Amino acid sequence: MVPEDTITEDGRKIGGVVMEMKNITLRFGGVVAIKDISFDIRQGEIRAIIGPNGAGKSSMLNVISGFYHPQEGEVWYQGKRRPPMKPFEVAQQGIARTFQNIALFEGMTVLDNVMTGRFRQMKAGLFAQAIWKGSAEAEEMKNREAVEKIIDFLEIQHIRKTPVGRLPYGLKKRVELARALAAEPSILLLDEPMAGMNVEEKEDMSRFILDVNDEFGTTIALIEHDMGVVMDLSDRVVVMDYGRKIGDGTPDEVRTNQDVIDAYLGVAHD
Amino acid sequence: MAQPSQTTDGLESVPALLQRNATRFGDKPAYREKEYGIWQCWTWAETEKEIEALALGLINLGVNEGDFIAIIGRNRPYFYWSMVAAQSVGAVPVPLYQDSAADEMAYVMDHCGARFAIVEDQEQVDKLIEVQEDLHQLEHIIYIDPRGLRKYDHRKLHRFIDINEQGRAAYYELIADLKARREKLTYDSICVMLYTSGTTGKPKGVVLSNRNIIESSKSSSAFDHLTREEEVLAYLPMAWVGDFIFSIGQAYWCGFCVNCPESPETMQTDLREIGPTYYFAPPRVFETQLTNVMIRMEDASRFKKWLFDTFMAHARKVGPALLDGKPVGALDRLKYALGNIFIYGPLKDTLGLGRVRVGYTAGEAIGPEIFEFYRSLGINLKQLYGQTEASVFITLQPDGEVRSDTVGVPAPGVEIRISDTGEVFYRSAGTFECYYKNPKSTADTKDAEGWVATGDAGFFDKDNGHLRIIDRAKDVGKMADGRLFAPKYVENKLKFYPNILEAVVFGNGRDACTAFINIDLAAVGNWAERNNIGYASYQELAGHPRVLDTIQAHVEEVNRSLAFDPMLSHCQVHRFLVLHKELDADDGEMTRTRKVRRRIVEGKYEDLLTALYDGSKEIFTRTEVTYEDGRKGHISATLQIRDATVVPIERARVAAE
Predict the structure, then answer these.
(1) Do A3 and A79 share a structural domain?
(2) What ipTM was assigned to the predicted interfaces of this complex?
(3) Residues 38 through 57 of chain B touching chain A, CB cutoff 8 Å
(4) Which residues are CB-neighbours of B47 under 8 A, at least 6 positions away?
(5) A70 with A151, same domain?
(6) Which of A118, A148, A183 represents a domain boundary (last residue)?
(7) Which of A183, A216, A235 is the last residue of a domain?
(8) pLDDT: is A266 or B400 the higher one?
């Protein structure tokens, strides 16, 4: 059942399934946000989740990141069934995310914000960190180096010491990506990474997402509204509408799927 | 004509200077680059090893003596090493502007027939691959940053560190060859080939020999007493002759350290961290910095603003005199010292100019207020006049004889004469060998005796023997009634206003002068914000009636000052318009060094020019624009044309008397 490793047209290697969602159903009281959805994410791919407003995309991402616990269904991660977990436990498993409405520490500098992403890699105790001696110092140097590489990678050197609150929106999004990357995730979840950006910022962001995937081999699951971007970026696309999965496949397959066309162009619902 | 060769102690090439530096002071820093937030440093000894490895790698890759190697990237140690490594193996480095479009690059690459290119990243590789079909000679591309390039076809593509590694591995095999090649280098070998941006026509390859570069560096370093201890920040395009002289010629001659910024955006921070002692910037950079300071002072608290204004007024009064070592009263000195603690010192530090011992500006005229501002702070800012063809230096201002309207006295070893038509000619040891594959242009520019035509019109000031440049000789024209027309002079007067970024004045063969004006978005935008004027785009702001009023006031002020000029009082601007887009190098309206291409602007905006002369009040226009990635689009706008008040010349004369 595990698919063979495949090589994409542009030469990237896509491996076996790392995460599988099996028959997930999520309810909030009487509202069914997600209705019996199954799909998988393969190692090294860019997997998009798309759908009209209110389709349940963000809820799906929140299920993956451990924010919501589905009433029915199972989440399988790295070949094991994942018990219900707190978000920080999920993060410790190597799943990092960004948020739709930017959740950075506005008063802190870019550098400090990105450093918080290294939380998982900091082992020194509170006391050792406070007096900043021995292992704490060495650890911070190591982490700072890793963070600087990410700052270089995302080309945000010029705002390293700038408080996040003073940055324009597009750059904040990039800082959030930097923080997520700092955790060295094996799966990166991006919640509308391009919402509210202009064309140029979108192009930049697309390039960074592709580069992250290419350079670090990070598996990426993203939600996005801009169809052009999604179709260009992703290897496979899940399409949701009213909490149901209505399509799943390569961008080309999805584009020609009648249900998907209906959902986007709009037909009368019963 | 070359000067009689002085004793050179065998130091007849840049690689020879490198070896001297590595032996004499190998443990001194030669290069720094900020990377990953830390200044990484290479000493002269390490630099020599890096360059040697790269040179061996280049031989290993098949570089022959006399080959051309294109160097395309922003200022990084690797590129400086590449240039010296290329010289070491007997090849000729050709640095190119990294922001040129692919077809511009193709022309130059094809013209010099480069077999190799050393480039920065994917962007440059993509550009070269795009034009590669037409470049039959281009064999190998070496890149520094591997990002995004992993999947490319690597038959012709090599990573910089791999070439180095291969060089090290082949050390015993190739070192004899490298040494032999290095020893063959003389004063007459080609040191570098630089393409001039060319305000007209295609770029020309200026061939500069080791003699040109080393002699110029030697005499100019002596002129300003440059030592091994200088710190410079290399941030100007590597394809520009100035950067080559400062960051290679003088740096290798004196043995000082070249610091490379982390990225173009961090330049200001890096400047401050390094605190250069020797600094060059075009007037535009000084203008922008001053505008930023003024904008921020507008937002400062009242007390701070008062403090700033008071002490700056005092600095303007005595600062320049103090700098020139002229007598200043004790009380004024005390007040200046106080100002230094409160205002000048911190300000200079913020600007990153706190340690500048010798600062230069050149390329364009600098506004007297701007020039005075920096000098009054105690920064020894001077002007020089130079050209690629002269290995930069033609004239320099000596310490203590600095003025904003002259460019100084002939640099050491430079002879200057003014022709009958007013054009400036020079000859020196730095005078270029020839234009590559262009004997006709060479002959047009340089005569048999070695005199080079600068293309600039100027004269020597009678009072102090300093050279004054009025305009490009070919731009100096005649108005319909035969009087002198010098557009640059008027444009500079206009550009001295912070609100005006660029101006193009017309009037050749006509009976009155008119002008196109570009607003400065930073200055005007800030003004709009403070005055609650909303705008959605550059175009909207540029067309705002109150902006037009402001610009009109500036134009009229310039007219009033022109009225008193004995030579150019008839060049007052009668009508003007504010352009709806910034003149841009991507649209071919400016050169990469940001000089206006007059003829192109004239041709492209013919409709607007007609409107300036036919009396219309407004005009609708549609303009093609080129985006950074080479795509094209259109913008259209209706522009207002304003009449500016001119001062009748006779009345001004009477008033003056």
Answers:
(1) yes
(2) 0.82
(3) 38
(4) B18, B22, B30, B31, B77, B81
(5) no
(6) A183
(7) A183
(8) B400
Contact B151 A160 (CB under 8 A): no
CA B376 to chain centroid: 24
Do B208 and B292 sit in the same domain of this protein? no
Is residue A99 domain-resident? no
Domain limits at B327? Answer: 283-472
Q: B621-628 long-range contacts, Cβ below 8 Å, gap at least 24?
A: B621/B580, B623/B580, B623/B581, B624/B587, B625/B581, B625/B584, B625/B587, B626/B584, B626/B586, B626/B587, B626/B588, B627/B586, B628/B586
Would the CB atoms of B37 and A10 count as touching at under 8 Å? no
**Cα(B350)–Cα(B358) distance, rounded to whole angstroms?**
18
- What CATH code is carried by the domain that includes residue B341? 3.40.50.12780
pLDDT mean over A77-87: 89
B306 to chain A nearest CA, in Å?
27
Give the 3-state secondary structure of B68-134: EEEEECCCCHHHHHHHHHHHHCCCEEEEECCCCCHHHHHHHHHHHCCCEEEECCHHHHHHHHHHHHH
For residue A240, what are the domain limits? 1-94+185-270
- Cβ neighbours of B37 in A, within 8 Å: 144, 148, 151, 157, 160
| Interchain proximity A148–B38, CB inside 8 Å | yes
CATH number at residue A253: 3.40.50.300
What is the spatial distance between Cα B238 and Cα B95, in angstroms, rounded to a whole number?
6
Q: Predicted confidence band at B488 (pLDDT cuts at 50, 70, 90)?
A: confident
Section B502-526 average pLDDT: 91
What is the residue type of B251?
A: A
Residues in A whose CB is inside 8 Å of some CB of B read: 10-12, 144-145, 148-149, 151-153, 155, 157-158, 160, 210-211, 214-215
Would you say residue B66 lies in a domain? Answer: yes
pLDDT tens track for B274-304: 999 999 999 888 988 888 888 888 888 999 9
Q: Measured on CA atoms in the order A25, A28, A33, A39, is the torsion positive or negative? A: negative
- Are the C-beta atoms of A114 and A104 separated by less than 8 Å? no
Give the pLDDT band (50/70/90) at residue A157: very high
CB contact under 8 A, A145 and B36: yes
What's the CATH code of the domain at B626? 3.30.300.30
Residues A161, A219 within the same domain = no
**pLDDT of B3 higher than 50:** no
Which B-chain residues 256-275 have CB contacts (< 8 A) with chain A? Answer: 262-263, 265-266, 269
Per-residue pLDDT at B331 exceeds 80: yes
Are B145 and B294 in a shared domain? no
Tens-place pLDDT, residues B338-379: 999 999 999 999 999 999 999 999 887 787 888 989 999 999
Neighbours of B449 (CB within 10 A): 8
Domain match, A20 and A56 both: yes
The full length of chain B comes to 657
Which of B148, B150, B266 faces A157 most closely, judged by CB atoms?
B266
pLDDT at B1: 37
A3-12, A146-155, B384-393, B541-550: least confidently modelled range: A3-12
| pLDDT attached to residue A107 | 94
B385 and B527 housed in the same domain = no
Of the two residues B127 and A6, the one the predictor is more confident about is B127
